[in-house]
Design brief:
The chain has 795 residues and is an alpha/beta fold. The chain is built from 25 helices and 29 strands. Strands 5, 6, 10, 11, 12, 13, 14 and 15 form an eight-stranded mixed β-sheet that branches. The protein has an eight-stranded parallel barrel with strand order 20-21-22-25-26-27-28-29, surrounded by seven helices. The longest helix has 36 residues, at 324-359. The protein is globular. It starts with a strand and ends with a helix. It binds flavin-adenine dinucleotide (FAD) and flavin mononucleotide. Flavin-adenine dinucleotide (FAD) binds next to helix 1, strand 3, strand 10 and helix 10.
Length: 795
Amino acid sequence: MKIVCIGGGPAGLYFGLLMKKLNPAHDITVVERNRPYDTFGWGVVFSDATMDNMRQWDRETADEIQAAFNHWDDIELRFKGRTLRSGGHGFVGIGRKKLLNILQARCERLGVKLAFEQEVDSDDEFPDADLVVASDGINSRIRSRYAEVFKPDIVTRPNRYIWLGTNRLYDAFTFDFQRTEHGWFQAHIYKFDEQTTTFIVECPEHVWLAHGLDRADPAESIAFCEKLFADNLQGARLMTNARHLRGSAWLNFQRVVCEQWWLRVPATSPARAGSQPPARHVVLMGDAVHTAHFAIGSGTKLAFEDAIELTRQFQRLGDAPEHIGEVLQTYQALRSVETLRLQNAAWNAMEWFEVCGARYCDQLAPEQFMYSMLTRSQRISHENLRLRDAAWLGGYERWFAERAGVPVSSALPAPPPMFTPFTLRGTTLKNRVVVSPMAQYACSEGVPGDYHLVHLGARAMGGAGLVFAEMTCTSPDARITPGCPGLWTDAQGAAWQRIVDWVHANSDAKIAMQIGHAGPKGSTNAPWDGAGADQPLPTGNWPLLSASARPYLPDGAVPRAMDRADMDRVKADFVAATRRAAAAGFDWLELHGAHGYLLSAFISPLTNHRSDAYGGSLDNRLRYPLEVLAAMRAAWPAERPISVRISAHDWVEGGITPEDAVAIARAFKAAGADLIDVSSGQVSPDQKPTYGRMYQTPFADRIRQEAGIATMAVGAISEADHVNAIVSAGRADLCAVGRPHLANPAWTLAEAARIGYLPMPWPRHYRAAKSQMESLFQREKAAQAQAVAAARLAA
Ligand SMILES: Cc1cc2nc3c(=O)[nH]c(=O)nc-3n(C[C@H](O)[C@H](O)[C@H](O)COP(=O)(O)OP(=O)(O)OC[C@H]3O[C@@H](n4cnc5c(N)ncnc54)[C@H](O)[C@@H]3O)c2cc1C
Ligand SMILES: Cc1cc2nc3c(=O)[nH]c(=O)nc-3n(C[C@H](O)[C@H](O)[C@H](O)COP(=O)(O)O)c2cc1C
């Protein structure tokens, strides 16, 4: 086959050499616009796993790269005058020049033709090639030429960065954050050979503009960075290696994803008219087809893995022109899934660096900032950090516990963050786990009976710090279903008091009441009745109220838009329910302002179409819910906390966004809320949520940092490891766990045993089970470790 690689970066060179090795008869040329020793950038990093993969395909190249590697384990953070360091992270770095020279030399030895200083405009310049590989990098000309086929989705990110180098040598992957009068800058710093270190400086666009860096030439930009990081550089100079870049050397990262990775150029194209051989194929590879942000440093790895996969498919399906179509199809099918996975992880890490100046730098103490930074991709968990550096994590857990008011000593391990207490107003929870409110639809006339005593009692015994009663309604017409509990009569208040008293007498959990009004989502079936959840009752319906006369489901019952008299009556009902909850002895009160129920229907523009003072702007839409909260706060004892559950994202175009949620949280805070319970969705049946583990936690994180109020995260939090990571990173103060508590009332006790937290107190009647459960988990862990060791040995 005749193969031409346009672009002699890692992708083109590595593919060229692998294919030549696969079959020396192939005629392979790599065409590169630069000279052999000319390149942009400094060092690149990748992981041991990439090296193992490369070793299987070409030991010579892998060995040479390995010999040139700089390996380091530590990550160091320089922040607010402090230096913090943790180990076990395992990176390797190599100079980009060195890497390319190794690949170039190997290509030459194998007989791959290298054509330097040749600018390619079009694949038509190679009319007799069977395969043209567009390995021409992020600004791929070939990709642009066939944009209609490849359908590239290119997103330009808001941060600016400049890729510099220095001769100061560092023994850790170093992050340095510096505050200026206009905002924060950060540097990503890693040594890649015995003389040189990569020094990438990054900041948000507005900070970059405010410093006039858009008008600075490379020398002025370097001078600026040298001054900003003078402490760190200790007199060493910064250098640029981007001579080919015109104007400002500051770039924006561009995330590239392509829908199609290859095409067949028909023989009838002008350049091929009259030619006999079958049509030419063009395939994208490396940065030309996908990019990964340097925050997780995997662009070179992706380029190498593309080259390996394409070679593997030629080896498997046949390396002759007639197989090219099938080979390219398989290559795309396999690589597109794998790269998307990595791009998603890179996205979280990239976003963390984009928002850190606004969201974390001024808010978090250096210790917690370090934790947040290390877990930025949300792929590294709390226990994973322990595996990397147990001493550092132990120190962090002590720091966290101390701040939570737990007396610690260096002799004793501190409790994991999940098991530290949390105080709001005069109420202290023993730990950070909350049984999320979950409707049971098990009442008659709104009175909770034995069912609720057993249900909530069991969960109060199960180890969580706070147990929520389900949404409890303020009037008969405020119910979701006929089975919902209420607080509109004294009999209901007394029935709740019996449950609260039982919980207080038999456990050290606190118990919370959630008060709500179903609004447009009322008068429906229990999920297991008739047509299912959200469907209108077949008989015995009651009239509905909402912000506007719009049904929740397209063919659902139409509510009446509330007038001021309705608002006054409903507010008075909320206050009466609050007084009954206080009298019943609840420790904590929550206002349900989420999920499309009445107050949420006022807040969301999807459900509020009013033209009076309660509709229109977000301020107007919040007016009534804030009025209700303020009235409840006035009726609720000052020493007990109030939280508000909100839907932080409607997951519908034109609905509430996480940015709105920050403004909503600020407004509720000003009206007396102590904590925001951050849920999302259920406001519109058109919602398209992106589910995944801890999927709503980023909203809780953003609200906590930007609105400056305590938050509770909820949604797909299902392991102690999740709770520990969320609380440790300061993404939320509490974690509500719903469905896992339906499956296991003692979820918290079980998770404590699973992670080996032996001081966990158990209810005295259940203590006989504690050590048995702990040793079962210990044995399970030992068996797993043995299996892993055996598998390693076998490999
Ligand atoms: C600041 C920064 C830091 C990074 N850090 C890392 C890191 O730590 N680890 C990592 O793995 N990756 C890192 N990367 C990404 C990495 O550099 C790329 O992902 C990787 O080089 C992709 O390889 P490639 O061969 O696809 O493209 P490139 O390396 O971009 O190679 C493309 C080649 O094609 C040539 N070319 C382009 N157009 C033409 C033309 N028309 N005619 C002839 N030749 C042409 C170019 O000169 C270039 O040599 C970083 C990137 C940046 C910007
Ligand atoms: C059966 C059931 C009933 C629920 N009832 C309520 C409720 O009364 N009030 C409320 O705010 N959320 C309610 N939710 C939402 C949960 O509190 C929680 O936010 C959701 O289940 C996501 O958490 P999870 O992934 O841990 O289950 C309910 C969820 C379930 C599964």
